[in-house]
Amino acid sequence: MAKTAIAYKEKMKEISVISLICSCLYPESRKDILGDFEEKPSALLADMDIKPINKRASGQAFEVILKSPSPVSDASHCVTTPPKKDISLEDIQKKLEAAEDRRRSQEAQVLRALAEKRDHERDVLMKAMEENSNFSRMAEEKLQLKMEQIEENRMAYLASIMERLQEKEKHGQEVRRNKELREEITA
Question: Is 0.70 topped by the overall pTM?
């Protein structure tokens, strides 16, 4: 125990050396720091118990136990709660009414937000439906034009085929007539 107390005092002296070095930067407070330090170790040792803990490879270890405060200091640390203010029925009713008003206001605000959201959803839905109908109408018009074009192309193709067939038929009749004329001439 004596060794740990000595080790503790050595540590306190090391701290005083550090404070002395720091006091070189502030020379006006040097006397105050040294005066305070010389008084503190004895005062600190009177208010605490030091128990050594098994020695470790990293150095010594000890536990510092603070003594309980004296009965005189208990009176200075005693905290009393402030006296409760008497609350009248009118004050309670006013507070309840204010809370009810806040609740109604908040409820109205939530309902307004929901209505705005519903309106926005309705607008979006209407716009989507309008775009869909416009798309359908445009697609139908394009399809109708395409079908008309296909029909025109088909009719033109059929007309050209019929014309070629008629030309072939005329050519065939001419060839037959020429053949008959040759056979009559040769016969």
Answer: no
Task: Give the separation between CA 54 and CA 57, rounded to whole angstroms.
Answer: 10
Tell me the C-alpha to C-alpha distance, in Å, between residue 161 and each of 55, 78, 165, 168.
116, 118, 6, 10
Burial of residue 147 (number of CB atoms within 10 Å: 0-12, 13-18, 19+)? exposed
Task: Judge contact between 26 and 19, C-beta under 8 A.
Answer: no
Q: Is the CB of residue 5 less than 8 Å from the CB of residue 50? A: yes
Q: Which residues pair with 53 in a beta bridge?
A: 61
Which of the residue ranges 13-17, 28-32, 105-109, 111-115 would you say has the lowest mean pLDDT? 28-32
Residues 10, 26 contacting (CB under 8 angstroms): no
Instruction: Calculate mean pLDDT across residues 24-35.
Output: 48
